Amino acid sequence: MIEITTTIALLISSLYGTVETASVIDASVIDTTVATSTDNSAIVTVTTDRKSLEKYLRENYADTPMLLEIARCESTFTHYDKNGDVIRGRVNSADVGLMQINEKYHLETAEKLGLDIHTVEGNVNYAKYLYDNEGVQPWSASSPCWGKALPGSQDEVLAKN
Q1: Closest of 22, 44, 47 to residue 35, by C-alpha
Q2: N or C: which end of the chain has fewer CB within 10 A?
Q3: Which residues contact 125 (CB under 8 A, 6 or more apart)?
Q4: Quick one: the chain helix, strand, coil %, rounded to 5?
Q5: Torsion sign (Cα): 152, 89, 49, 64
């Protein structure tokens, strides 16, 4: 099991008050530990692993298993890199997170919906919104991967959506 750990120093915590990670990310996916550094600034350590993220996606996408396949192909159920940064696409660095949501095309809409695509929860919820409104088209570039999981050809699926 691969774990991805990120440590973020919250130097501006005095401006925003306490951090409530459970409201941003489902606590069943993320284990959070808050500690104090030597300069008394808060440090939050967030640990997640692919199996937990896959379980979270299976629960959230129970009615849309295609999104689970897309996540497997797009990010291999990874949201953070080894440095704790949200993963970005290899081909297009504007693609972020588990579902590789493109910031250029979707950040503004996601923000209007109150979703932060840089968090696990926001990324997953925006992908569901996107799928409900546009089908699989936003992930058509990875269809050679997830298209294998479908009955029929990938072209048929893309044509239907």
Answers
A1: 44
A2: N
A3: 60, 115
A4: 45, 20, 35
A5: negative
For the CA atoms of 104, 109, 54, 138, the dihedral, rounded to the nearest 10 degrees, stands at -60
List the domain range (segments joined by +) for residue 48: 3-160
Helix (H, G, I), strand (E, B) or coil at 51: helix
H-only helix segments in the chain? 13-16, 50-60, 65-75, 103-112, 120-134, 143-146, 154-160
pLDDT digits 0-9 by tens, 64-100: 999 999 999 999 999 998 888 999 999 999 999 999 9
Strand pairing partners for 8? 44
Residues 6+ apart with CB under 8 A from 20: none
Integer Cα distance of 15 and 17 in angstroms: 6
Domain count within the chain: 1
**Mean pLDDT estimate for the chain:** 73
pTM: 0.67
